[in-house]
UniProtKB/TrEMBL annotation:
<dbReference type="InterPro" id="IPR008042">
    <property type="entry name" value="Retrotrans_Pao"/>
</dbReference>
<dbReference type="InterPro" id="IPR043502">
    <property type="entry name" value="DNA/RNA_pol_sf"/>
</dbReference>
<protein>
    <recommendedName>
        <fullName>Reverse transcriptase domain-containing protein</fullName>
    </recommendedName>
</protein>
<dbReference type="GO" id="GO:0071897">
    <property type="term" value="P:DNA biosynthetic process"/>
</dbReference>
<dbReference type="Pfam" id="PF05380">
    <property type="entry name" value="Peptidase_A17"/>
</dbReference>
């Protein structure tokens, strides 16, 4: 981007460099005609040019003009939209708008992980249409999202006058994803109240990683999330229970890191730093609520899921 921004000819003498190809070569002087990364003025000039580009060409690209004017930081942009269609149109407009200044945008990334994972494996250009089967699959998914409106999660997480508080965290993984979920259980006499606090999921990498390693990644993610939860809720927790259906991971947690291979050792060390060995327990896959995160669930089924 910087190399497409010309410097005023009167200012180019301030961007002189000296160059010598070899020991016996004469020293040559060059003037840099464009904005150079690392100079004090570069961030300002870059931003100023983008604002001018919006004034000159923005009327043809209304979505991109707003983003270019407010969501760019030097040569990086962080933005989004309310739907995949809107984001796709925004990308097209951004590409065309900056092209008016001879610039190209690169290194796109999206947090729509499933979309990214599906598309990246197809050797397909971003603007190409999806095959009919995949397009229909996405339409069905989008049409089912209205079911999410029926999902209700209580904001109040404690029973009345609780006498005992427990945090229960669950981790699970599959070949496609891994996830964790954290609950708070409050008790008063014979009354028990269990409420969902938070959850987190990750899409598995495309390269082949065995499920036991992904289960280990899930356990580490759970340890990290529980640590953050404990800092955030500021309640006196009596007990912490961390659950996994992977007997391999549970066995590794009981070992010393130096006994294990590097990939496993690094993650076990982090888990043991955040949690205690005696806090980890086994749960069957059928009773593990994190299974919903790792294997996925249709929106209409999620609302009726007891876990």
């Amino acid at each position: 981007m910087y190399r497409m921004i010309l410097v005023d000819p009167q200012q180019r003498d301030l961007q002189r460099i000296v160059w010598k190809n070899g020991k016996n070569d004469t020293v040559k002087t060059y003037k840099l005609n464009t904005v150079t990364y690392g100079t004090t003025s570069a961030p300002y000039l870059d931003t100023r040019v983008l604002h001018q580009l919006v004034k000159d060409e923005g009327q043809c690209f209304p979505l991109a003009a707003t983003v270019l004017d407010s969501d760019f930081y030097m040569d990086d942009v962080l933005t989004g939209g309310d739907s995949l269609e809107e984001v796709r149109e925004l990308q097209i407009q951004l590409i065309r708008l900056v092209a008016r200044a001879g610039m190209e945008l690169h290194k796109w990334i999206t947090n729509s992980s499933n979309l990214r994972k599906t598309l990246e494996t197809k050797d397909r250009d971003w603007n190409d249409s999806l095959p009919e089967r995949e397009a229909e699959e996405w339409k069905r998914f989008l049409n089912s999202l209205h079911s999410i409106n029926q999902l209700c999660i209580p904001r109040h997480v404690l029973c009345e006058f609780p006498e005992k508080l427990e945090v229960h965290g669950f981790a699970d993984a599959s070949e496609r994803a891994y996830g964790v979920v954290v609950y708070l259980k409050s008790s008063a006499g014979e009354r028990n109240c269990v409420r969902l606090l938070c959850s987190k999921s990750r899409v598995a990498l495309r390269k082949s990683i065995l499920v036991p390693k992904l289960e280990l990644c899930a356990a580490l993610l759970l340890a990290q999330l529980v640590k953050r939860v404990l800092c955030a809720i500021k309640l006196e927790i009596n007990d912490i229970y961390l659950w996994s259906d992977s007997t391999i991971v549970l066995a590794c947690i009981q070992h010393e890191p130096w006994e294990l291979k590097t990939f496993v050792a690094n993650r076990i060390a982090a888990i043991q730093e955040l949690t205690k060995k005696e806090q980890w327990f086994h749960v069957s896959s059928g009773n593990n609520p994190a299974d919903v995160l790792s294997r996925g669930l249709a929106p209409e089924k999620l609302c009726n899921n007891e876990l």
